[in-house]
Design a protein that fits this description.
peroxisome, binds acetoacetyl-coenzyme A, about 700 residues, about 50% helix, single chain, NAD, alpha/beta, 20 strands, isomerase, 3HC_DH_C, 3-hydroxyacyl-CoA dehydrogenase, about 10% strand
């Protein structure tokens, strides 16, 4: 281990010496982002090294858990002249006349990897990861990444890394020539040794002076074709391809300058604002007032699941995937066998696609214990009920569980609409009861609504949040109300969609209006997939509870013809073998007859009207949910919509989308289309605020 003599400076970059090597340590926890103070410190270090003949080379390393994880995303909204000068720092490195070595552990992402590529050499520990994830924030590598990465790893690999945004391991980066030496053992000592070895090597191998390997026209054409599928409607991916092509075609300086201009264009786009909003909203959603890292949690070593249907099976897979044994309960052997075979088939399909081995399939299945006896759940640390939505059935299960589960076990319901307080009330331990609302398909969808009931204990809540992370879900805490956050909003959205058709639009036009916003499925494509009978049953139930007559809308009439959606090979639409929705003339006729019977003269409804009415119906219900405290933050609602309902991340979720449109305009449009704006929405509009400002003010209060 080297023992640099430290010189303490009040800076984010500490200078120390190890003989003839100057070590610059960046200390900007938690992730050493390139914040104000970092460039100043690095430049000062380089100046010191340039002025001192006894310094032969410079090592740049990150203090704490990582190298630089990128530009400081929080500075993106700063005026340009105040934002940290990453590009200037890299220019200085590129022009530097002594060797510089980036020593990487943790992650070198975005501006972090760009900084490293501005150095003469890069060394890393084997577990380090390097990548350019900017596309995930709607921007592009803006400090030389688009120009340097293709020069090192070739055009195709650079495009792959920049367009996926996914990092690669240092060992792979070593094979690609992006890392010059893998250091097993002490990173700083290894980096200093490497720097000393290279101290006199000249000329310095600057990446900016290389050409781009493998830059054939077909590589760029394939990338352009690929992003039409993977990044439909997005700006930054096509800018990335253009810039990578420039890297191969024009002198370095020209590409470097173009990159700066394009970076600003992408950074100032609503798409990037939306993606950045989601980056922080997702992290914020993990924070719950009153719950700290000192809140006790219990360890989850085993799970019990009641119900081996689509939901129960999908939920079980999440646990099996991370090595948690599951006992799954059904009432009938046949249903149990069916459930198990679906789980096995899902895993085997994954294995067939090469994403897991057959040994992995067997290992996961071996963790699964099927049973018809609920008593077998007596040792489970968490039990999740996933049977159909019926309060009496759920109450019966929870009454029995109360007598079976060990003390301290979490008793969770996967209900998507029912009152978790009422479910908890039948047990002698309501503090152990919580809602864990998974989204279908539960083994795929990332969202987990964590429903905090009146008496849920902090330990149960904190354990559920930790569990969400462990099973790789995004957990968002919500309160109890009919449909919680996601489904309550989607019910309102469905009502509006049916209303738009009633007034004159065709279902396919309504769906197209949401596809145009970037949602893969419009409201009717979604309900055909979920099963039309579900919404139908909910409407019937709600009418009964409210003492209203049996609902008889055009969609109820479709369900009554026996068409329930994709599961009956047709609903609002017909489906071909690729599950493409095809408008059905009989259903269109049914809708026209319905309008005629009700005396409705159909009118032309523009795509713009349809998009606004649908998106703003979500926003309006979201504002009510926020006001009632069912969601903690507008950002939480956005996270729910992105991970649970396919709302495009680059729009930032419905609430952020509304803020981008201007809440004043949203209120005006709601009124124009006959909806009553929620009081909170109206107030924010009058004050000229956004939902993000509302969250920030609430967070400070
Ligand atoms: N800027 C500002 N804050 C950042 C940040 C960044 N680049 N990266 C992480 N943070 C913050 C997070 O918001 C979080 O803050 P809170 O604790 O207040 O919530 C904290 O650092 C820890 O982050 P995570 O909870 O995500 O920690 P993790 O260990 O799970 O993951 C990580 C660490 C892999 C670095 C992950 O944070 C990450 O992926 N960060 C973003 C990396 C990135 O996108 N870099 C490119 C930036 S754009 C750029 O560099 C542009 C350019 O070319 C000039």
């Amino acid at each position: 281990m080297s023992t640099p003599e430290s010189s303490s400076q009040p800076s984010l970059v500490q200078q120390s010496r190890d003989g003839d090597i100057l070590v610059l340590t960046i200390n900007n926890p938690p992730v050493n982002a390139f914040s104000p103070g970092v460039p100043e410190g690095l430049k000062a270090g380089l100046d010191a090294a340039a002025a001192d003949d006894s310094v032969k080379a410079v090592v740049i390393i990150g203090g704490g858990r990582t190298f630089v994880a990128g530009a400081d995303i929080r500075t993106f909204d700063m005026p340009r002249e105040q934002s940290p000068d990453l590009r200037g720092t890299i220019e200085k490195l590129d022009a530097f006349t002594k060797p510089t070595v980036a020593a990487i552990h943790g992650t070198a992402l975005g501006g972090g990897l760009e900084l490293a590529m501005g150095c003469t050499y890069r060394v890393a520990v084997p577990g380090a990861q390097v990548g350019l994830p900017e596309v995930k924030l709607g921007v592009l590598p803006g400090a030389g990444g688009t120009q340097r990465l293709p020069r090192v790893v070739g055009a195709a690999k650079a495009l792959d890394m920049m367009l996926s945004g996914n990092p690669i391991r240092a060992t792979e980066a070593g094979q690609l020539g992006l890392i010059d030496r893998i250091i097993d053992g002490d990173l700083l000592a290894g980096a200093v040794e490497f720097a000393r070895e290279m101290a006199d090597a000249r000329p310095l191998p600057r990446i900016s002076e290389r050409s781009v390997p493998g830059a054939t026209p077909d590589v760029f054409a394939a990338a352009r074709q690929g992003i039409r599928k993977t990044h439909r409607g997005q700006l930054s991916p096509s800018l990335i391809v253009d810039l990578a092509e420039m890297a191969a075609a024009v002198p370095f300086q020209e590409g470097w300058d173009a990159e700066a201009t394009k970076f600003m264009e992408a950074k100032d786009s609503p798409q990037s604002r939306g993606l950045r909003h989601i980056f922080f909203a997702e992290r914020e959603s993990a924070k719950i007032p009153g719950i700290t890292k000192d809140t006790p949690t219990t360890e989850i070593r085993s799970a019990g699941i009641i119900g081996a249907g689509t939901m129960g099976g999908g939920i079980a897979m999440n646990f099996l995937n991370v090595g948690i044994p599951v006992t799954i309960v059904e009432t009938q052997q046949e249903a149990l066998d069916r459930g198990l075979s679906v789980i096995r088939r899902n895993y085997e399909n994954t294995a067939r696609k090469g994403r897991m081995s057959m040994e992995d399939v067997e290992a996961r299945m071996a963790l699964l214990t099927p049973t018809l006896d609920m008593g077998d759940l007596k040792d489970a640390d968490i039990i999740i009920e996933a049977v159909f939505e019926n309060m009496d059935v759920k109450k019966d299960i929870f009454t029995r569980l109360d007598g079976i589960a060990k003390p301290g076990a979490i008793l969770a319901s996967n209900t998507s609409t029912l009152d978790v307080n009422e479910i908890a009330s039948v047990t002698s331990r309501p503090e152990s009861v919580i809602g864990l609302h998974f989204f279908s398909p539960a083994n795929v969808m990332k969202l987990l609504e964590i429903v905090r009931a009146e008496k849920t204990s902090d330990t149960v809540l904190a354990t559920s949040m930790a569990l969400a992370k462990r099973i790789r879900k995004v957990g968002v805490v919500v309160g109890v109300c009919d449909g919680f956050v996601g489904n309550r909003m989607v019910h309102r959205y469905g009502d509006e969609a049916r209303q738009i058709v009633e007034e004159g639009a065709r279902p396919e036009d309504v769906d197209a209006s949401m596809n145009a916003l970037g949602l893969p499925m419009g409201p009717f494509q979604m309900s055909d997939m979920a099963g039309l009978d579900i919404g139908h049953a909910i409407r019937q139930h709600q009418a009964k509870v409210a003492g209203q007559p049996k609902p008889d809308g055009w969609l109820d009439r479709i369900v009554e013809t026996g068409r329930k959606g994709q599961k009956t090979q047709g609903g609002i639409y017909d489906y071909d073998e690729t599950r493409r929705p095809i408008p059905n003339a009989d259903m269109q006729k049914l809708i026209e007859d319905y309008r005629a019977e009700k005396g409705i003269t159909p009118r032309e409804i523009t795509q713009e009207e349809s998009t606004k009415r649908l998106a703003y119906s979500l926003v309006n219900e979201g504002a009510k949910i926020l006001e009632e405290g069912i969601a903690q933050r507008a950002g939480d609602i956005d996270v729910i919509y992105i991970y649970g309902y396919g709302f495009p991340a680059y729009r930032g979720g419905p609430m952020q989308y509304a803020s981008e449109q201007g809440l004043k305009n949203v209120v005006a449009d709601l009124e124009k289309y006959g909806q009553t704006p929620a009081p909170l929405l109206k107030r924010l509009a009058e004050e000229g605020k956004t939902f993000a400002q509302y969250d920030a003010e609430k967070g400070r209060a």
